[in-house]
């Protein structure tokens, strides 16, 4: 009986600790339009781009986009969008899920010299079985790029079966504060040559085909919609919510196991 | 160094064997005790089949448990996104834990991995008591309620692992093999069937246990009354 009380008390304590956190997470989705070889990277106020909410943020419906053939399959057409504020650069890459296994971008690209040694890039997806890229890379000529996690690229992958597109929503600091080694810091007025590639289009890519990202301090005019107010949650609160969920379910299982042990002890003594 | 992807084969494969052997042993034992196996079929079933299947399930259960702990550790290391991290890099592990908590899909995987492990531990405790301590030839020599909750725990644990693997596919590829399959896709991140399913399973186990206890109590009371009359 005493053992039972101790076990139940411990279980309730664990449950209580797990329930000390609480949060609400809301998410929104989006659609888009446009094309060319240059893309304006506008400044945006309160973009509300949340990584981990499994939804394409609403801000992208107002942002200019750039059609990218390397990201496109038969249908639909892939594209990219870029925005920035004083702290972060935001990007949305959309590509054809059925035709493409990985996508990438090389920053500060040079015409005629793809994957230039020392250039920074972002690659997402599986380049070969078991070799998965999670964002930041450093190119070393036309060899397998090396992962560069110091870039601090945060991203999430969202599949939209209705459009056949996979979206990768990306957030990265404007300034990485990396003091040594390959690095790329963005500024609010820079013009950046980039090269896009994918599993579908990289070996036959035209090495002279470059795009231009034109950072500007002009502010994005966000389309207003007559919708209900949306609240987004800081990442710390999301982490706390997830930790709470794990603790609650973990303690439920632990509770069952402790009850079982106690019942077996009682059964063993009686028999 | 991607370690999580190659390591999942150990616990998923081992626990698949555990689930299959448990399923076969449970039903062979159930049907055999009620003489429901046709004679022509019974000729092909060795008298020790149930005990052997139970033994294999137990061994692969232990292998799976060791595998899932290692795979979970490697999963956190991979989630840290630290390039060429050493398996002994504890700081990368903690960074991975932080990244997992910040991501809906990865935290889903962590949550249901914990539940799956606890389900298999539940089954392991039952087997440890009835087979190792009580020295039965197999768990299937126990009361039918013990067999039911043992098998139920193993299937729940394996279901959790399958869903976790499906969530991994969604994280890497955007969708998994389970996407598009009715009911199973509702168990994946974004679905709403996982929690009710597990709560119902737990309640079912409690119902079985209580019914067994109450029926034995009623039987004891009836016997006591009969002896008093005599």
Please give a quick description of this structure.
Mean pLDDT of chain A is 79; it is low at 15-35.
General description of the model:
The complex is a heterodimer of chains A (271) and B (230). Chain A has helices spanning 2-18, 235-270; strands spanning 38-43, 66-67, 79-84, 88-96, 102-107, 120-128, 131-138, 146-147, 154-160, 165-173, 191-198, 211-219. Chain A is α+β, with helices and mostly antiparallel strands and 271 residues long. In chain A, helix 1 runs antiparallel to helix 2 (235-270). Chain A starts with a helix and ends with a helix. Chain B contains 7 helices and no strands. Chain B has helices at residues 4-33, 39-42, 49-79, 90-101, 104-133, 144-173, 194-229. The mean pLDDT of chain B is 85.
Write the layout of secondary structure elements.
The complex is a heterodimer of chains A (271) and B (230).
Chain A: H1 2-18, E1 38-43, E2 66-67, E3 79-84, E4 88-96, E5 102-107, E6 120-128, E7 131-138, E8 146-147, E9 154-160, E10 165-173, E11 191-198, E12 211-219, H2 235-270
Parallel strand pairs in A: 1-3, 1-12
Antiparallel strand pairs in A: 2-3, 3-4, 4-10, 5-6, 5-11, 6-7, 7-8, 9-10, 11-12
Helix pairs in contact in A: 1-2
Chain B: H1 4-33, H2 39-42, H3 49-79, H4 90-101, H5 104-133, H6 144-173, H7 194-229
Helix pairs in contact in B: 1-3, 1-6, 3-4, 3-5, 5-6, 6-7
């Amino acid at each position: 009986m005493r053992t039972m009380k101790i076990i139940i008390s411990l279980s309730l304590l664990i449950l209580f600790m797990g329930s000390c956190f609480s949060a609400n997470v809301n998410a929104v989705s989006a659609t888009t339009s446009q094309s060319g070889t240059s893309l304006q990277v506008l400044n945006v106020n309160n973009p509300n781009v949340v990584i981990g909410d499994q939804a394409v943020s609403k801000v992208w419906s107002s942002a200019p986009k750039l059609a990218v053939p390397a990201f496109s399959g038969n249908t639909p057409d892939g594209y990219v969008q870029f925005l920035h504020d004083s702290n972060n650069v935001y990007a949305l890459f959309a590509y054809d899920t059925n035709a493409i296994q990985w996508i990438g971008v090389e920053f500060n690209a040079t015409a005629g010299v793809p994957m230039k040694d020392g250039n920074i890039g972002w690659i997402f997806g599986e380049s070969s079985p078991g070799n998965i890229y999670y964002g930041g890379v450093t190119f070393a000529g036309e060899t397998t790029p090396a992962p560069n996690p110091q870039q601090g690229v945060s991203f999430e992958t969202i599949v939209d079966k209705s459009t056949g597109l996979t979206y990768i929503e990306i957030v990265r600091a404007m300034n990485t504060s990396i003091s040594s080694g390959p690095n790329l810091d963005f500024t609010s007025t820079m013009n950046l040559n980039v090269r896009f590639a994918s599993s579908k289009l990289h070996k036959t890519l035209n090495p002279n085909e470059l795009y231009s990202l034109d950072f500007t301090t002009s502010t994005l005019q966000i389309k207003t919609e007559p919708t209900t107010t949306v609240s987004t949650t800081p990442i710390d609160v999301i982490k706390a919510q997830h930790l709470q969920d794990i603790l609650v379910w973990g303690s439920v299982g632990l509770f069952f196991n402790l009850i079982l042990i106690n019942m077996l002890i009682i059964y063993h003594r009686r028999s | 160094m991607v370690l999580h992807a190659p390591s999942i084969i150990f616990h998923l494969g081992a626990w698949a064997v555990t689930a299959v052997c448990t399923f076969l042993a449970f039903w062979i034992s159930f049907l055999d005790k009620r003489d429901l196996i046709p004679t022509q079929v019974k000729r092909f079933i060795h008298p020790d089949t149930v005990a052997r299947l139970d033994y294999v399930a137990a061994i692969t259960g232990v292998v799976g448990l060791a595998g899932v702990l290692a795979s979970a550790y490697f999963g956190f290391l991979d989630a840290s996104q630290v390039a060429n991290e050493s398996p002994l890099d504890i700081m990368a592990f903690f960074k991975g834990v932080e990244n997992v908590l910040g991501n809906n899909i990865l935290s889903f995987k962590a949550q249901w991995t914990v539940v799956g492990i606890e389900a298999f531990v539940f089954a392991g405790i039952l087997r440890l008591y009835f087979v190792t301590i009580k020295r039965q030839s197999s768990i299937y020599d126990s009361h039918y309620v013990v067999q039911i909750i043992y098998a139920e725990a193993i299937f729940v644990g394996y279901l959790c692992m399958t869903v976790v693997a499906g969530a991994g596919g969604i994280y890497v590829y955007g969708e998994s093999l389970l996407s598009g399959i009715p009911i199973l896709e509702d168990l994946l991140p974004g679905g709403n069937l996982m929690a009710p399913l597990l709560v119902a399973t737990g309640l079912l186990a409690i119902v079985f246990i209580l019914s067994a206890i109450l029926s034995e109590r009623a039987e004891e009371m009836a016997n006591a009354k009969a002896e008093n009359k005599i």
